[in-house]
Description:
This protein has two domains: about 40 residues; about 30 residues, no CATH class. Helices cover about 50% and strands about 15% of the residues. It contains two helices and four strands, in the order H-E-E-E-E-H. The strands form two sheets. Strands 1-2 form a two-stranded antiparallel sheet. A two-stranded antiparallel sheet has the order 3-4. A hairpin with a 2-residue loop joins strand 3 and strand 4. The protein binds zinc ion. The site of zinc ion (ZN) has 8 residues, from loops. Zinc ion (ZN) binds next to loops.
Amino acid sequence: MHLRLILVALAVWLLVAGIRTLRGRKRRRAEAPRRLPDSEPMVRCARCGTFVPESRAVRVHGRTYCTEAHARPGADTPPRA
Ligand SMILES: [Zn+2]
């Protein structure tokens, strides 16, 4: 009987199509969030060691700081050893 063969072929096709769809979704989900953290590099404060986004960092004499207060010489917070 040909009907049985057609049904088996249809079941196999649906299974393959379903697996391809699931794999495609997983791949897209895994790739999407990876771009966001790389978009802005983090720099370390020369005084307290806190990591801040490069655009928010304060640069003085080639060194990077997290805030204006830490960029000033002799600021309130002493440098950590
Ligand atoms: Zn700091």
